[in-house]
Amino acid sequence: MKIANIIIRTLLGLLFLFTSISYFFHLMPEPASTGEFKAFQVGIVASTYLLPLAKGIELLCGLSFVTGKYMTMANLMIFPVTLNILLINYFLTPENLPLAIFVFLGNIFLIFTHWENYKGLFKAD
Fold first, then answer.
1. Burial 68-104 (b: 16+ CB within 10 A, else e)
2. Model confidence over 8-21: pLDDT tens digits?
3. Model pTM greater than 0.85?
C-alpha cells in the first residue's frame, strides 16, 4: 500500500505541476474547444479569478504531493478541483473522462490512505 501511495501521489503531483505551470507560463497552446464546453470555458475565463485560483491550488497541491509534505491539507484543498474536473469531463468532454477518473480516484485513494488524519473532522462534539 505504501508503494501505491507514493506512485499515485507522485503521478498526481507531477500532473498538477505540469498543468499549472503550463497555464501560468503559457507553455502549451490552448486546445480548441467547441459546443457546450466552449460556452462553459468562456464563462470561466470571463470570471477572471476562477481559473488562476484553481491553477494556483493545483500548483500548491502538486508541490505537496511530489514532496509528500502537508498531504492532509493538500488532499482537502484539491478535492473540489478534482470533483469539478470529473464532472466537467463527464458532462461536457467525455473523451477526456479516463484521465479525469484517474485524478478523482487518485485523490480519493490518497484521502483513504491518510484517513487517520481526517477522523477529527467527522466528530460531533
1. eeebbebbeebbebbeebbebbeebbeeeeeebebbb
2. 999 999 999 999 99
3. yes
